[in-house]
Amino acid sequence: MSKMDVTRRGVLKTGAVAGGGLMLPTYLRAAGHEGFTNAPTGSTVTLGFNVPQTGPYADEGADELRAYELAVEHLNGGGDGGMLPTFSSKALEGNGILGKKVEYVTGDTQTKSDAARASAKSMIEKDGAVMITGGSSSGVAIAVQGLCQEAGVIFMAGLTHSNDTTGKDKKANGFRHFFNGYMSGAALAPVLADVYGNDRKAYHLTADYTWGWTQQESIAAATEALGWETVNNVLTPLAATDFSSYIAPVLNSGADVLVLNHYGGNMVNSLTNAVQFGLRDKTINNKNFEIVVPLFSRLMARGAGENIKGILGSTNWHWSLQDEGSKAFVKSFGTKYGFPPSQAAHTCYVQTILYADAVARAGSFNPCAVAEALEGFEFDGLGNGPTLYRAEDHQCFKDVLVVRGKENPTSEFDLLEVVQVTPRAQVEYAPDHPMFAGGALGTCNPGA
Amino acid sequence: MFGLNKKDTSLLLVVAALTLFAPFILNPFPTDSGLAQFNAGYPDLMQRFVIFGIFAVGFNILFGLTGYLSFGHAAFLGVGSYSAVWMFKLLSMNVIPAIILSVIVAGLFALLIGFVSLRRSGIYFSILTLAFAQMSFNLAYSVLTPITNGETGLQLTLDDPRILGVSATADGSIPVTSLFGLEMRSTYEMAVGGWNFQFSAGYYLCAIIMLVSFYIAVRIFRSPFGLMLRAVKCNQNRMRYTGLNTRPYTLAAFVISGMYAGLAGGLMASMDPLAGAERMQWTASGEVVLMTILGGAGTLIGPVLGAGFIKYFENIFSKINDNVLHQWFSWLPDGIEDFVVFIIHPFIGKGWHLTLGILFMLVVIYLPGGLVEGGQRISRLFKKNKSSDDGAAAKTTPAE
């Protein structure tokens, strides 16, 4: 009998639900009328900030989140406006985006593609985010970019340096302000040749994922063109924390330069291991042994402490830059948090502003309209000098900084000195360059 | 009904009702209210609930019945995902061939690993499976990069062949996974008052497959084969002394639970066509053990509850940030508000592991039978009250 009870209840429930569903005014996707995913209907618009809060890139993630919060504050008219006054486009008025107050949701990518996609999906499906931004790993950025393309929202990549993000994995809904491995190679190689000579043997330790692969390829190609020889390239797991077993073979390889294609916590650990092994005091082939870290950031410099002194690398932006935009950003970030922003914070802040500006210029949150407004957009005043958002691959082109770990830092933040500002023309490449070939943007997807 | 006894039938019907009405049950708070943070009724999370439910139900067939604790089940999930994504890349975007292939490949893989690992029992078996899983993870992560795309994860691209489908849709984007044309991502939204219920095609496909696998699990539990597995758990030596070879039984259980894991992996890839190596990591294997123990090992519905519990924490608690907390406690005076937020801060956001760990400890210490035992205790409490009422009534009616 109890069996029948349950079935009957089930039948009744189903009937009631079906009836209710038919009678009540129902519609497909609140956004359906607007013709794109998560069209903001109320007085607010929600952005999704998806950053690593745990894992090897957690430091960068925390700084990115600070920058996002600052950007939201400035967009809503709070604070001192940061880079809004110095930005060449004046479409933003400090009243949110298109008059809608900016709200945000945050998530943890855990530096894992799966977790990052789950987090981004919940932002899109549950919180109604109309734009996703963040990521501090190229693997994650590429995975989330793919998701945003399918879901029909804009993805503004945060810190992702792999060639593939705007190369073979580029997507019509994805945009990157940060520079990439090729640009690092093109900017860094001439300086390396100047300082260390044209006759060097390089040994690469490379983080084993898309960013490591493409950066290693870029650096090797750029240095080999200037006469260097690449002795070996060893791939290390992203999750590794101890690199001593990878350092020992370097000594016996005959190489006189160690290139660490590592970032974040990885780089801090591998550099510390390398210095502990006394690599920098060695003389090989009558040359002083050198270490190069192609992608540098102040957060890493702080983590590595003393070991960073004198080491060359490249960076997207540094807080000591003296243009108006950088000064304004450092000032408002410093006022709010008490220390200068990292390059990760800078690129994330700029991406948020660029998105908001594109929406304002397009007059719509529709991803296709936003994409059109961003494509081929030339701007200035955001800290990197005149910059172009290239339409062919959604990559920003701007000057690249070559930096060196300071020998005599004046404060705990003054860890890097800018050696050279490599002009934009030197780091530009054709959209179909072999290192970037093999992908297609596809067409912009506005979703449902 | 369906060859089940009365109790199991009602259990199956309860599970069916829970899964089919999940979009309502999991969305108890209106969208605009402050408590909407705790709503879990959006397609991605609901899909995760049932997919990990399948995974845990399958794991329970091995662990709950035979007592063999496998620490490498995530490997089968990962293998299933990779096979499914390759099917999408090579054959078509229809989910059926992908799911079938993922079950078969995971089954074969389980046969191989089980054949070796089941030579030992107890902790040695656990270590062997852990070793195999870690090996598969490392293979997927670096050695087999051409097949698995390493850390980035295997993804669809515009130039995949897809011989039975199209490489790219007419408007130049990657086609989406579908069931004979029904797109997995298509969602019907129903706005009722302040509520917004989402019915996703993908979720209902997963839910139906989950019900079928749950039904099969019930049948296995109640079958002579299931009895044999329980006997293995009870006293394997005694079974051997009676002249029975237990190996075929344990191996069959291992392969079946591996196929369940493969099915879960295939479904995951069908809902979101990406397969990452971290799905095979030992932490993922540990997670399913947690799910099963948290829910109640050896019970039918326990693993499903445990899976839901853990996924809920992972996805809901990890998204609460300080901002949200300040909104909740804004009615408190300033100093106290900051203090309360400061106290709660370590338990939310990235601290969700901590909250989950504490709850897990409490469950294991006070409810060794998992959430199911908790439910039983509560129902016993109610039954006691009820039976005392009944007792008064019973006196008036003659007993049989």
Shape of chain A: globular
The CATH architecture designation of the largest domain in chain A is 3-Layer(aba) Sandwich
Can you summarize the main beta sheet of chain A? Answer: 7 strands, mixed
Indicate the proportion of strand residues of chain A: 15-25%
Number of helices of chain A: 13
User: Mean pLDDT of chain B, rounded to whole units?
Assistant: 87
Per the CATH scheme, the topology name of the largest domain in chain A is Rossmann fold
CATH class value of the largest domain in chain A: Alpha Beta
Count of individual helical segments of chain B: 16
Topology as H/E string of chain A? HEHEHEHEEHEHEHEHEEEHEHHHEEEEEH
> How many β strands of chain A by DSSP?
17
Please give the share of residues in helix of chain B: 55-70%
Strand order of the largest sheet of chain B: 1-6
Structure description:
The complex is a heterodimer of chains A (about 450) and B (about 400). With about 450 residues, chain A is α/β, with parallel strands linked by helices. Chain A has 2 domains: about 220 residues, 3-Layer(aba) Sandwich (Rossmann fold), CATH 3.40.50; about 130 residues, Rossmann fold. Chain A is built from 13 helices and 17 strands. A 7-stranded mixed sheet of chain A has the order 7-6-8-11-12-16-17, sandwiched between helices. In chain A, strands 2-1-3-4-5 form a 5-stranded parallel sheet, with helices on both faces. In chain A, helix 8 packs parallel to helix 9. The radius of gyration of chain A is 24 Å and the shape is globular. The two termini of chain A are about 45 Å apart. The relative contact order of chain A is 0.15. The N terminus of chain A is likely disordered. Chain B is mainly alpha-helical and about 400 residues long. Chain B has a domain of about 250 residues. Helix content of chain B is about 65%, strand content about 5%. Chain B has 16 helices and 6 strands. In chain B, the strands form 3 sheets. A two-stranded antiparallel ribbon of chain B has the order 1-6. A two-stranded antiparallel ribbon of chain B has the order 2-3. Chain B has a two-stranded antiparallel sheet with strand order 4-5. In chain B, a hairpin with a 2-residue loop joins strand 4 and strand 5. Chain B is globular. The C terminus of chain B is likely disordered. Chain B: Pfam families: BPD_transp_2. Chain B: It is found in: Cell membrane. Chain B: Its main location: membrane. Chain B: This is Putative amino acid/amide ABC transporter membrane protein 2, HAAT family. Chain B: GO terms for molecular function: branched-chain amino acid transmembrane transporter activity. Chain A: Belongs to the leucine-binding protein family.
